[in-house]
Amino acid sequence: MSYGTAESVASLATMWTDVVSHMWKDPVPDYDIEGTNPTLTEVEDWLVNLSAQFDIALGSHWFVPPVNVNVSPTAYNAISQYVSQLVADLCHFKNSSGRFFTEKLVERGTTPMAAILRDMNNYIEMNADGFVQDNVPQREAQTIRKQIKFRVIG
Question: Total structural domains in the chain?
Answer without folding.
Answer: 1
